[in-house]
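Lab notebook, bench 4. Still working through the backlog of constructs that have no structural model yet. Next entry is a single chain of 631 residues. Request: give me the C-alpha cells for it.
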Amino acid sequence: MPRSFIRAASLVIMLSFCAIPAFSEIIDATGLFAEEVRWLADNVAKETRDEFLFRTSGINAYADSKPPEVGDVEVFNTLNIRSKTNVKIRAQLKKIGKHCYVYLQEGKKVDAKAIARIVSEFDGRIYPRTRSMFGSEWNPGIDGDPRITLLLLDIQDNYNPQQGRRGYTAGYFYAGDCYNRKKKAESNEREMLYLDIYPSVPGSTEFMSVVAHEFQHMIHWNNDPKEFTWVNESLSQLSQFLCGYGHPPQVQAFIRNPHNNLAAWSDDDMIANYGHVYLWAYYISTRIASTDERRRAFVRRMVAQTSQGFSGLNAAIEKQGIKNDVRNLFRSFCLANYLNDDRVERGAYGYDNPLAKLALRPDLRLDKPPFEVKGRVKCWSARAIQINSASFRGREVSVLFAGQKVTAGNYSNSFDVALVTYSSDRKHLPVINWLDINSEYKSVHRSKVSSVHDRMMMLVVNRGPAVMKVEQAFARGSAPAAFTFAIRLPSSSTTAAPRVASAGSSRRTTARPDRARSRSMIEEIARSPGLEESAGSVLSSRGTAEEPLAAVEFDFGFQKIADAEDTIIDAIREDIAEDDYKLVEEFVKAYTSASDLEKSRLHTLRSRVLDILKFEQLQGSARAEAFISQF
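Model written out:
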C-alpha cells in the first residue's frame, strides 16, 4: 500500500494568462494518486452485483431506501491538497439531473443559474459525448445508482496569487470512492467528481471543461485502472476539446517550453506537460483514422487496452488494422509541431484547421554552413535547428550526425533525424529526408537543396523503448542524450562522422562540483524567484523575424538556474555511477532544511533527483531506496 493516504486524482491546474505558476505539492499528489490506484487495482477487487446486494440488504435494504431529494445533506470525505489530509465536509443536494446529482459544500454560495447550467451541460453534452468517444463509466457502480455525483467545493490547495502561486486544483476524480468502506475506509461509496468553486467560476466554460476532463478519468479507470498518467491525462485533455470547450490553455505553456519528455510527466514542467500530451492525443486522434466513426473506435480501443503507455497504443493500432506504429507516429508528431504543413505525406506533418497556425520556434537559427552543433535532447522529445539556406540554394550539402546511446539493462534509446528544406513563404512544398541512423547511432547524408527553398531545418528526435515494463523507468530515469551534427558545403565536406560522448559519460567540460559547491548551487536555486513569462496567443504566428547569429556556439537558451540544475543532476549521475551518494545526501539535507517557499523553487530539481533514485532502485540499489524514503 502507498506510504500515505493521498486522494488527489488527475489534478487539473487552471492558469491565469499572465504567468506560468511555480509548482507546489500538487505534482507529488498526482504521482502518489497513480501509485495508490494501481495498488488498489492489483490488490482490491471491484465489488460484484451479488456483493453489493448483500452489503445493502437487511433493515435498510437498498430497494426500500429513500431516494435522494433536493435539500438532502450528506457528509463527504475530501482531500486538503495543501496539508495532504482527509477532511470531512457537509454538502447539500442542490439539483438532480438525468445523469447527475449536484451537491454544494455548506457555507458556500453558487448561483442557481450556474448550477442549472452545470446540470444542463453535463446531461446534454458532457455525458453523451464523453461516453461515445471513450466508453462507459462503472454503471450503476458501487452505489447501484447510474447518476454521477458532482461535488462543488472550495478545494484547499496552494492557490495564492499575492505570493505568485497562480496554479490551483480545479477538480479531481478519486477511484477510491468506487470501493466499499470495508476495503477503503475513506471511500464515499459513489461515482463522483470533485469540482473547485474558488477561484474556479461554476458554470463557466473553463469549469465545464474540467468536468469533461475528470469524467474521462472516471471512464478510463473503469476500463484500465493502471494506465500511465501521461496517457490518461492526454485523453482527459482531449475530452475537453471534443465536448466543445476549445483547446486547453496549457498549450501555451508547451509552446513556451516544448522540450518536455512526453512520457515522463512528473519529470518536467507539469503545466507544459498538459499541453504536450493534449497535442499528442489530438494529433493521433485526427491522423490515425479518416472518419469520425473510425476515430471513436480507435480511441475506445486505446482506453479499453489492459496494456499501458505506448504498448497500449501499439495494441490499439494493431486491432484497428492500421499500418502505423509508435515510432512513425511520434517522429511525425514532433515534425508537425515545428513544420505544421499538411500538404505532404497525407497530412502526417501538420495539423488540421483548428491548429493550422501552431508552430514551435526552433531552438537555434543559423546563417549558413559550415558549422557543427552540439546539444542534448530528452527522452521522448525533440530539438529543432533552423538554417537560412538562401545563399546555397541548388547546391549539395553534407549532413553528418552522431548520437549518444543511453542504455539501461537490455534497453536503449533511438534517434530519428530529419533534414527538411522548405520555403519561408510556403509557396512550395517542403522536402523531408529522414536520415538512416546506423547501429553506432551515426549517419552521413548528402542531398541537394532545392532552388526554391530558402530554409533548412534539422529535427533531432529521441525515443525511449516503447515496452510497457520499462517505459516509465527509462523515460524518467535516463539522462538526456547528447548529439552532434554538422552541415557542410562540398568544399568543406568530410566523410568522418562527428563524435559524441559515450553512453555513460557527460558532455560537461567543467569540473564536477564538490559538496560545498553543490550546496551553494542548491541554495542559489532556492533563493531564485520562479519563472514568470507573459503569455502569448495559444496559436503562434508564422513569419517571425530572422536573427542572424555571429557565432555558431550551440546554446539552447537554458537559463542560469536550469544550467545549475543540469550541472547538479549530471554530477549526481556520475557520482552514482561510482556508487557515491554524497551529492544526493547534500541535496536531501538542503531540501529538508529549506522553507516552504524554497522547497517550491527546488521542486523541479527534487523531482529529477527522485527519478534518478527510482531508476537506480529499479536496478536493485538499496542505497537509492533509503534516500527515497527521506523525501
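Notes after review: The chain is about 35% helix and 20% strand. Residues 112-134 form the longest helix (23 residues). Flag for follow-up if needed.
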